[in-house]
Amino acid sequence: MTEAVAGRSLLLSALLRLARNRAAIASAVVLALYVVAGIVGPMVWLHDYRTVYANYVKVPASLTPYPRAEEILPGAAAALRRARLTVENVTVVGDTATITVHAARPIDPRVTRYLDRSDLFADARLVSLADDALSATFAADVARHTFLVGTDANGRDLAARILISIRISLMIAALATGVALVIGVLYGATAGFLGGRIDNLMMRVVDVLYSLPFVFFVILLVVFFGRNVVLMFIAVGAVEWLDMARIVRGQTLSLSRREFVQAAEALGVPPGAILRRHIIPNVSGPVIVFMTLLVPKVILLESFLSFLGLGVQEPLTSLGVLIAEGARNMRNAPWMLIYPSAALTLLLFALNFLGDGLRDAFDPRDR
Amino acid sequence: MLGYALRRLAGAVPTIFVVITAAFFLMRIAPGGPFDQERTLEGQVMENLNAAFGLSDPLWRQYLTYLGNLLQGDMGPSFIYRDFTVGTLLKAGLPVSVTLGSLALLLAFLVGGALGVVAALRQNSAVDHLVVTVATFGITVPNFVVAPVLSLVFGVWLDVLPAGGWQTGHLAPMVLPVVTLALPQVAVVARLIRGAMLEALTSDHVRTARAYGLPARLVVGVHALRAALLPVVSYLGPAAAALLTGSVVVESIFGIPGIGRYFVQGALNRDYTLVMGTVVVVAVFIVVFNLVVDLLYAVIDPRVRYD
Amino acid sequence: MTAPILSIRDLRVSFATPDGPVEAVKGIDLDLAAGEALAVVGESGSGKSQLMMAAMGLLAKNGTARGSARYRGEELIGLPARRLNRVRGAKITMIFQEPMTSLDPLQPVGRQIAETLRVHSHLSARAARRRTVELLDLVRLKDPERRVSAYPHELSGGQRQRVMIAMALANEPDILIADEPTTALDVTIQAEILALIADLRTRLGMAILFITHDLQIVRAFCERVMVMRDGRVMEEGDVATIFTAPREDYTRMLLAAEPEGTKPTAPPAPPILRAENVGVHFAIGRGAQLAAVDGVSLTLSPGETVGIVGESGSGKSTLARALLNLLPATGEVRFRDTPITGLSRRQMRPYRHALQMVFQDPYGALSPRLTVGEIVAEGLTVHAPELGAAERRARAVAALAEVGLDGAMARRFPHEFSGGQRQRIAIARAIVLKPAALVLDEPTSALDRSVQKQVLALLLALQAAHNLAYVFISHDLAVIRAVADRVMVMKDGRVVEEGPTARIFEAPATGYTRELIAAAFDLSAILAARQSNPNARGSASTIAGT
């Protein structure tokens, strides 16, 4: 016996196997990034997800900031047209624009606020006013905005919308999975361990629930819980527990026929302790695996409902909502479809790969 | 076997009945009604409408009436498509959905099966990794992403296929919807077949076949593949029921007149009869395909006996 | 010796595992002459099966073979599958240990045999079917015309193995490789199958390579034997020489590992366990009931061992569970005058520590996520809750020491132990409670003979030290003879015969017992008797006829 004295538990060896799976590790890293992006992202991002830039509706993704040089003159003209001023000339030096205007009637110095209201300028001030007040020169800082992945149909920064969507998706997934886990494990373990007639009855209930069309069920939940997203997804969790209950029940049933459970019975170990010491720990592997695969299912479901317009409501948003908007605008603004789709796909991909990796790690027969 | 099938169908009647009942009452206790959308209907008008559609009767009587009509094949008038009965709507839409669904199913079985077998035979090779990755992709990417992206790429940018629309009998408009529907199923079938084949290939009886010098075509085709079909059959049953009854996403993005969208539209607009109609159709499909799975299982696996 | 038809030189097999390559066969030389019967003997893990799998190109995917294996001069190692397929199934055929899983469960057995005929002998479908019927008749399967279309699950274990043999003979092979062909079968069936193979060999004249762990079979069946251990050949020679004058210690140890001797009779004492007319009935649907155990009575005194012997399905394991009130039973079981039959879990709990059980499967009987220390101490948490954790641990370590395991192992998990060690842990779990009686359900059946001998010695020592009473259940008559004071022979849920061990084995009263004993101890005689009269059963449709 040259090995270390402390044993290597099945869980530890499973994790070691997982560490050898490069796809799973990469997925775990991606997921960690998503979690950070979801929690921290909306707080530190350049733009708030609610801010509307009326001047920048559906601008394409770009690394260079807006406004572009050629947009400044029309932008200033458009802003000042409301004050009935005509822009003669705009010169830009560094971040400062100098705007000369004239008008038919005397110029009120307070018209600078029209410039401030535009998304292009900030801190506008009067430099000089002609004696007759019919022409003037303004100076204003050019507000530089970068829209890494473009803006949406309302002129909101798409990246900020995607970040908040990630937060919503992860939150909903955690909530619904948690609910499904608790109900499923308790229900399945009880049915499997008690067995016999009770098991039969409990599983019959599950069967009937199964034969209800799933989308119907969810849409009814939407109808009932209306627009409360949290409640709705607790409810979704309450639907998704069916699979979990079946898995746990099957495992429990087969475990309770194993000789180590019989041995515990022969020792006189009470049923509760058998469940706690011998059954639950051995069910945990499949349950963890199923959970990692349930998370993407829930995210997908949430996106699907949002896609149909049944999920998250404005000003909050979700990847499904963004994709639906993108699909509507794909001809003239394809980035609105591409980036949210990529964000959702990568997230689901990472979750699925991690789930598969975990399954292989816990049940290494395949490899 | 025939007796078993008939008994199973008879046994399914209570299931369908429970589903119908649950759907009926759940729909009705949900807040709102079919005429809420039309703004400010006067009280009298609203009452008249309700009376005309039998909505002012007590709920239990409406339920009994509905059951009675259903037994005679009458699913009632639609509330949102005012000029149509639910029966007409479903009769028009079902063939479209079934056509698309069965093509997708066929594609899934053939392509998915081939990919799965190839991957299993070349386990851990580049081909295998490719298949596994593509399959994960297919399972992962939701159809509401695939559909618009395909439509954008092939319909708009490349302009080789119609981005949407439907003409009965024409193949071109079917390509993108069928591919969208089939993609996730191809992926699942490929993974199932791969897994089951890997298990079958290491099983004792396949070792026997190899020990007896049978050519690879017999070892794989007869002894391994047949065992590997079992999980696919049990997966494809429910999947077929879902595919053949239409997909709201595919239908709304490609503009296809199937029955998938009726369900969502009906539920949102409280079109009670339309929702009930779709529920009945879906439930019947589920029951029938579960039966088909069981029968196919018995054909493939002699250990399963029904009598 | 004439030129060998199969000649293996320096064959090595290694498997790629996550923990690096593992070499299972480490350079083996072997020659097999035409018509010869050679035994390859070894315990589990000796590489005896992998040796032939490698020669036949049947290694698992992670396995690689190096070296040489020539059949009539043709190198088999590295031969492309297409060329290899002309040899395997036609010139060299195999039968395997598990007749249930070795046949395709989804195809009729006749079709599987016909398939090999069509591939190798190029017969038409009709001819192949006719030949299949002849073959099934040749292996003495009753009613071959009907059996052709039977599926494997419709046949018994012995019948399935006959089908495998028919398949092996179909193309008139030169060599039949039999890989533990009777290990999964009951002794009486084993005797029939071995007699059949021996008979077919004399009639058809093929060489047989017999892979087995069972020295009984080697002695009865083979002329030459090769002893393997840990991937290497330990010793090789004539069966007579090896059995009478083994050169290697390992061979001597194997020979000595056959259970022998008898237990010294226990002094008479008042019984602690008394079972009257115990019955167990299982519902098998539609109101029908199967009597798994029917009207069995027994008494058990301290220091005494009652051996229960029977073939699979005889109800002996069910009886064990009924005695401990682990499943509902009729009749009455009394523990020291207290009737325990029908007590609830809670009512039964005070008696559990006195009545313990050890199971057959050392892999399934230990909870995989608990440490060995926790497993052994579990009973104490129920029956001695007043003990502190430290005291419990100390007692567990003491129990482990008593079964010959290092106390430091208490922190390890079951999957890190060998089968024999696990069985010791299971025994420690039982004796830590200081029981009065132990029910041992096939406690050594899953173990190699040499390990079995050690575990049996441990059980006898523990019995002597604590004056334990044993109910010892086994299908293995040699084991029962070595450990029991009294023997009960069971068949189909009933006791066929019972009495003192010596009387049962020396003067069995019933035909069934005699048959069992002959099959277990006198294989050579059975084979000799069958061979002198080969047409005792079945017809003489012969290979030569085609």
Key features of this structure:
heterotrimer; A: 367 residues; alpha+beta; MetI-like fold; Gyrase A, domain 2; 2 domains; 4-stranded antiparallel β-sheet; 4 strands; 9% strand; elongated; disordered N terminus; B: 307 residues; mainly alpha; globular
Helix content of chain A: 55-70%
Mean pLDDT across every amino acid position of chain C: 87
CATH topology of the largest domain in chain A: MetI-like fold
E-strand count of chain A = 4
- The structural domain count of chain A equals 2
CATH architecture of the largest domain in chain A: Orthogonal Bundle
Distance between the termini of chain A: 28 Å
Q: Please tell me what the overall shape of chain A is.
A: elongated
CATH level 1 class label of the largest domain in chain A: Mainly Alpha
Mean pLDDT of chain A: 78
- Uncertain runs of chain A are 1-6
How far apart are the termini of chain C?
Answer: 30 Å
Organism (chain A): Acuticoccus mangrovi
Keywords (chain A): Cell inner membrane, Cell membrane, Membrane, Peptide transport, Protein transport, Transmembrane, Transmembrane helix, Transport
Main location (chain A): membrane
Protein name (chain A): Oligopeptide transport system permease protein OppC
SSE layout:
The complex is a heterotrimer of chains A (367), B (307) and C (546).
Chain A: H1 10-19, H2 22-44, H3 69-81, E1 86-93, E2 96-102, H4 112-117, E3 121-129, E4 135-142, H5 158-194, H6 196-211, H7 214-225, H8 229-256, H9 259-266, H10 271-307, H11 319-328, H12 335-362
Antiparallel strand pairs in A: 1-2, 2-4, 3-4
Helix pairs in contact in A: 1-12, 2-5, 2-12, 5-6, 5-8, 5-10, 7-8, 8-10, 9-10, 10-11, 10-12, 11-12
Chain B: H1 2-29, H2 43-52, H3 59-71, H4 86-121, H5 126-140, H6 143-157, H7 172-201, H8 204-211, H9 216-244, H10 248-254, H11 260-268, H12 272-300
Chain C: E1 6-17, E2 20-32, E3 37-41, H1 48-55, E4 63-71, E5 74-75, H2 81-87, E6 92-95, H3 99-102, H4 109-121, H5 125-138, H6 144-147, H7 157-169, E7 175-179, H8 187-204, E8 207-212, H9 215-221, E9 224-229, E10 232-238, H10 239-244, H11 249-256, E11 273-283, E12 289-300, E13 305-310, H12 316-323, E14 330-335, E15 338-339, H13 345-352, E16 355-358, H14 372-383, H15 389-402, H16 419-431, E17 437-441, H17 449-466, E18 469-474, H18 477-483, E19 486-491, E20 494-500, H19 501-506, H20 511-521, H21 523-532
Parallel strand pairs in C: 3-8, 3-9, 6-7, 7-8, 13-18, 13-19, 16-17, 17-18
Antiparallel strand pairs in C: 1-2, 1-4, 4-5, 9-10, 11-12, 11-14, 14-15, 19-20
Helix pairs in contact in C: 4-5, 4-7, 5-7, 7-8, 8-20, 8-21, 9-21, 14-15, 14-16, 15-16, 16-17
